[in-house]
Amino acid sequence: MPIDFYYLLISPPCRAVMLTAEAVGVKLNMKELDIFKGEQMKPEFVALNPQHCIPTLVDGDFVIWESRPTCSYLASKYGKDDSLFPNDPRARAEVERLNYFDMGTLFHRFGEYVVSGDAKTGRLNLYQ
């Protein structure tokens, strides 16, 4: 059964899931959504993911969104060993600690540095 993956290529979280799928040998059925055109608000997508966000992965009757738990799911279910998501509680805690640090601190701060914009106009300024 194919694994559907709803994504936007410019999204770093989406690319993280794509890299994890590649690392564990999972072929994704790629379904790009243009969030700038509001495609994530279509009723058929909202029925899958009521938070209407990407990345979203559909594996049979299981639907998951948010990149970090999606990567953990792929590594746990499809990984040939536990090298990406360890079974050992201490090693797994370290992976989770780094994921939470990325989510709560690093990704946000990096985004503030690289991308700024005007909330009223939606205009973005990208720094290189």
From TrEMBL:
Q: Which UniProt keywords apply?
A: Transferase
Q: PROSITE patterns per the record? A: GST_NTER (PS50404)
Which CDD domains does the annotation name?
GST_N_Delta_Epsilon
Q: Does the keyword Transferase apply?
A: yes
- In the UniProt record, the signal sequence range is none
Pfam families documented for this protein: GST_N_2
Q: Which GO terms describe its molecular function?
A: glutathione transferase activity
Q: Which Gene3D superfamilies match?
A: 1.20.1050.10, Glutaredoxin
Q: Does the keyword Aminoacyl-tRNA synthetase apply?
A: no
Supply one GO BP term: glutathione metabolic process
Tell me the InterPro entries matching this sequence. Answer: Glutathione-S-Trfase_C_sf, Glutathione_S-Trfase, Glutathione_S-Trfase_N, Thioredoxin-like_sf
GST N-terminal domain: from which residue to which, for each copy?
A: 1-82
What protein name applies here?
A: Glutathione S-transferase 1, isoform C
